[in-house]
Amino acid sequence: MSKSTKVTIQDVARLAGVGVGTVSRVLNGHPNVSADAEASVRRAIEESGYRPVAAAQTLRSRRSNIIGFITDEIATSPHAGQIMRGAQETAWKGGKILFLVNTQWDPELERSAVETMIDRQVDGLIYATMFHRAATPPQAIRQIPSVLLDCFVEDASLASVVPNEADGGYQATTYLIEHGHRRIGYINHVEDIPAQRLRLQGYRSALEAHGIPFDAELVVERYSEPKGGYDGMMTLLNLPNPPSAVFCFNDRSAMGAYDAIRQRGLRIPQDIAVIGFDNQELIAANLYPGLTTMQLPHYEMGIWAVEYLLSELDAVGKDEAAAERSPPQVLLKCPLVVRDSV
Amino acid sequence: MSKSTKVTIQDVARLAGVGVGTVSRVLNGHPNVSADAEASVRRAIEESGYRPVAAAQTLRSRRSNIIGFITDEIATSPHAGQIMRGAQETAWKGGKILFLVNTQWDPELERSAVETMIDRQVDGLIYATMFHRAATPPQAIRQIPSVLLDCFVEDASLASVVPNEADGGYQATTYLIEHGHRRIGYINHVEDIPAQRLRLQGYRSALEAHGIPFDAELVVERYSEPKGGYDGMMTLLNLPNPPSAVFCFNDRSAMGAYDAIRQRGLRIPQDIAVIGFDNQELIAANLYPGLTTMQLPHYEMGIWAVEYLLSELDAVGKDEAAAERSPPQVLLKCPLVVRDSV
């Protein structure tokens, strides 16, 4: 490679006084760039000696600059919109547009959507689920660069990014322990999904790391809705030796736990501390007192998935033997969001 | 027209033992139909003498069977997912797939998305907003069949479907009056948006229709979030002659009103009745007691918009002088959802 490849697209953007997205759109022959901006970019490319990756240039005419985004129900559910947001913003910065199809769990629509996307020559595909789970995406997604978002295939044959649930459970429980609690309840979900298994695993590891014996009586399983949280909390409060703090599988169960605690005339956090999971703003930020919770890295997973796809697209035609690498299986951290409930 | 046009696509579907969507996909040369299903449909067409609209057949090769769906933030916000759901389901029944772009209010992305959609030969475009408002969609959407969803252009030059806000306010207030209340507070939003003006108008009309004089003291304006609802409710409770019922601009303000009422040691609905607006399930169904509220017709608007587009597509090439009709400006009713707060 010649030396001039060290000039980056960022340098060109700075020189031209435009965003990186605009440079990318000019390079890719995207129609929607003003004549002025295009002229500045072309000047900046000449002056800087910038040379975009040859493979990318060769492929230019075959690029649609569209990334397909297939999901079960991210667009229609109130739970995971930030996945779409992180992905869309990152795509647009790279001069690409996300076309989303929300299949509402219809497998025929899902297959058809993937095929239509490939027919329309999308550059790559994101297959995203509303909650962390094992998935069986249509075979066709393997025909083009693809990545799984908030899901994975059991044999790890497709790149994937999911939340680190076990670490989240560990952090949540540790935060309660650090606030002096040793008798900590856990209102878990009932269905066997990764979050259900892994958050419990994190809860147990944290107890163990702090020399607190596990007490099975303190773990209850309920549907992770307000009603389940209410009911689970009542069960814990009825124990001869009730907990002084409770970790809830998600913010919706915490919402119900709040009601149970209030109904008993107890105060949060003075009488009982509560920590949630998900950081579902509509609930967590709006409860009184505000709910301390673990944030799902929705936005970050969206960014990661698109950045991964863009790097795969860049690598096409390079001698990196991409096909021989194992697809990455990435876990992203769930950060603690402190409010007033612990 | 020949007599055989009276055989409908539904008849063909019934005869073939498949869904209408499958028939439509066969007619439109959609790839994703099993050989068996295609054979049954072709047999049923022959037997029934069904003749699809000629124009649609002629245009077949130019149809992508994709409907573009451009939105400010429906996919990323937790508020209006049912719009997407109604639209997607209706499109799919008609053998079409919705491609959504969520622009997060970025006008450059919005323009580019519309142009990319048109480049990719979508059959029609839906321009949808997260809340009911006047909109200024990119000019380019006028090049192909388009419809505005949950928004409108001031000059009514594009077809539009929005909620009937005034009727919703009227119904909510009337429901409280019918439950014996005559001193009814209204916690309105502060920004000048259609819902703000029109729900107040409905509130006033209902009072007037029932011979109750309007009392300006009973109407407070706050940001329509829990904090605003809490604060507005406190203001009303501090009146020398406080209301016995309160209509809240939305479910989020009602959530805050609940906290204020509880903090005063009052009971809902025995001491004070509460009615919301939006039927945002995550809140309305999960509050204790469940919140009685007006439902936004999100799902129905999604259906209406796609059905309108499909009928426009059917009309292409017919002698209906479509261009000379005024684009419909449709208001859909907000139904009352009764729970336990009144």
Description:
The structure is a homodimer of 342-residue chains. The N and C termini of chain A lie far apart (57 Å). In chain A, helix 5 packs parallel to helix 12. In chain A, strand 9, helix 11 and strand 10 form a beta-alpha-beta unit. The first copy, chain A, is built from twelve helices and twelve strands. A six-stranded parallel beta sheet of chain A has the order 2-1-3-4-5-11, sandwiched between helices. In chain A, strands 7-6-8-9-10-12 form a six-stranded mixed beta sheet, sandwiched between helices. The first copy, chain A, has 342 residues and is α/β, with parallel strands linked by helices. Chain A folds into three domains: 50 residues, lambda repressor-like DNA-binding domains (434 Repressor (Amino-terminal Domain), Orthogonal Bundle); 133 residues, Response regulator (Rossmann fold), CATH 3.40.50.2300; 131 residues, 3-Layer(aba) Sandwich (Rossmann fold), CATH 3.40.50.2300. At the A-B interface, helix 5, strand 2, helix 6, helix 10 and helix 11 of A face helix 5, strand 2, helix 6, helix 10 and helix 11 of B.
Which properties best describe this structure?
homodimer; 434 Repressor (Amino-terminal Domain); Rossmann fold; 18% strand; disordered N terminus
CATH fold naming of the largest domain in chain A: Rossmann fold
Give the strand content of chain A.
Answer: 15-25%
CATH architectural type of the largest domain in chain A: 3-Layer(aba) Sandwich
CATH class category label of the largest domain in chain A: Alpha Beta
Strand order in space, largest sheet of chain A:
2-1-3-4-5-11
Overall number of strands of chain A: 12
The number of helical segments of chain A is 12
Tell me which oligomeric state these chains represent.
homodimer
Average pLDDT confidence of chain A is 90
Point out poorly predicted stretches of chain A: 1-5, 54-61
Helix content of chain A: 40-55%
Q: What would you report as the Rg of chain A, rounded to the nearest angstrom?
A: 24 Å
Q: Tell me about the biggest sheet of chain A?
A: 6 strands, parallel
**Would you identify the CATH H-level superfamily of the largest domain in chain A?**
Response regulator
SSE order of chain A, one letter for each helix or strand: HHHHEHEHEEEHEHEHEHEHEHEE
Query: Tell me, what's the shape of chain A?
Result: elongated
